Target: HAD family hydrolase
Amino acid sequence: MNRDRTAFLFDLDGTLVDSVYQHVLAWKEALDREGIELSVWRIHRKIGMSGGLFTQILLRETGIEITEDRVARLRRWHAEAYARRAEAGGVRPLPGARELLAWLTDAGLPWAIATSGRMQTAAHNLEALGVDPARVPVVTRDDVRHAKPDPDLFVTAAARLGVDIQHALVLGDSIWDMLAAQRCRALGVGLLSGGYGQEELERAGAFRVYEDPADLLRHIDEVAARS
Model:
């Protein structure tokens, strides 16, 4: 009996690229520049959702007035701070990330990348990973109306691959990825490489959790269906 091949829809930061804490520090720098005091751990808990939603939630939690100018300013300062860290060599692929993508390509299994970041910041990560968005489907915040925890990014990525979202795996490091997967009825696979714990990811809907891309590749037959 023929089976549909599993499509892999990857988050980027903390899933394929070791960049979560660089984003956290970049947001911290932007918030400090705006005169907003917020602990680093509180920032980390929001990484993975869209930048716009992220800033609005943080500003609401601090009781500071939310204005379009302030949100745009924070987003611009974050992008600048993150770019400096990336260009200084602070952003690298996670262990096994390149090997995992190469294995999927060789096996004929479709894959795409769907990130809440905008291409302005995602470009640094894609370059570090060796992924050419002209050859691989890459969906960013620029391409959808709503980002995680809404499912739009992953639904769009599946559409670009020409696959049914219900035959896809969503692979991510945050609870926002797992919530988005549930909302589009895809199976969620969690990775610990972004700083969330196994129980958190499982409670958010992950049916399997691995340490990082290298660990996932070692257990690839647990999740990959090949026709």
Remarks:
- The chain is about 45% helix and 15% strand.
- The domain at 20-90 is CATH 1.10.150.240 (DNA polymerase; domain 1).
- The longest strand covers residues 168-172.
